[in-house]
Amino acid sequence: MLKTQVGIIGAGPSGLILARMLAQQGIESVILESQSRAHCEQRARAGVLEHDAANLLDEIGVGERMRREGLVHRGIFLRFDGCDHRIDMAELTGGRTITVYGQHEVIKDLIAAAIADGQALHFDVADVSLNDIDSDAPTIQYRHEGELRVLQCDVIAGCDGFHGVCRPSIPDGAIRSFARSYPFAWLGILSASAPASAELVYARHERGFALQSMRSPEVTRLYIQVPPDDTIDHWSDDQIWSELNTRLAVDGDWSLNRGPIVQRGITPMRSFVADPMQFGRLFLVGDAAHIVPPTGAKGMNLAIADVRVLAAALGAFYTKGDMRPLDTYSATCLRRVWNVQRFSAWMTQLLHRIGDDPFAARVQRAELEYVTSSRAAATALAENYVGLPFGALA
Ligand code: APR
Ligand code: PHB
Asked: Less Cβ around it within 10 Å: N or C end of the chain?
């Protein structure tokens, strides 16, 4: 039987950042990941870091490349009825900004740092299962390099994403789920061409939502709202570009830079919260506990906020024998989680075409006009988009 202090399941942002924050406090952990290293490093995900999330990566010593290659943005555009409206986030929030840096780049930096520091990190593990999670000595059973192994821990961190094994290991009835699905999905592409706008453009069009983001000065990230059951092979390159050009059209001299599509896919949209985010000695972190629709770009940021709370609670547990911060882990995290659910659902209904109700469409346009003309309303958007300070709501 192998032993560690914290058994971490999943090497996404949650698991990798948690292991690092624990190591910095002298707490030992083992990370078990079902995919290969290459798979984790290439998975296409969002790429917006809140102000405090970017600072946290610096604080834990993995921010160097992000600061060099990431793009600091001080504003975003809301585009509707052929007009652009800039939300000056930095000016509205006392200088707070976002950093555009792909999640897979964050993952590469974290894996490299973990390996350099001798962190126990096992890829390609199979048949992971959890036992005795309501005892003081929970175990993780898994198969690695052809052998069946058992890892005994003080605590297990479930960092294995929405489709992982940790949440389903909690007995029926011990946690409640809150969920909402949306009647649309996002078709996303990466284009090997320069972004036409240096800042993100969120467009509301009667044919549906569109977004222009980016990964670098040479690579554009683009999304369009599509029906929930749509498949990627329904879409030719010409159709994708034509839809993007229609929905992102704006008065004046602006057009997208068409380039080769180097990656494409369709992502479903959902909101989900597990409450509580803990059971016995198992703590759910990040996507294992909650999912937000991508409109507010919050998935990775919310995961980082959970990790921060759990790492501090485990610090109190190991250094002072204080169980209280662990006992209140879920309640602490859920305050932020529900605020981010609120914001992500609000951004989603503000910008997507939802049904054919003409009344709803007029209310939506009135809301866009309000957000882009009232400093109070614009500030509410800006402070949530750059992220409420860590500590303010967990
Ligand atoms: N055993 C081991 N590892 C697993 C298992 C399992 N049974 N199931 C899933 N995993 C791994 C996945 O392969 C993945 O690498 O857990 C990891 C979970 O990572 P993420 O899904 O990235 O979740 P998280 O770390 O919480 O980060 C949240 O990622 O999904 C995005 O939009 C989301 O940006 C947000 C962020
Ligand atoms: C992205 O760049 O992938 C991105 C940006 C903003 C979002 C979602 C995704 O709201």
From this structure: N
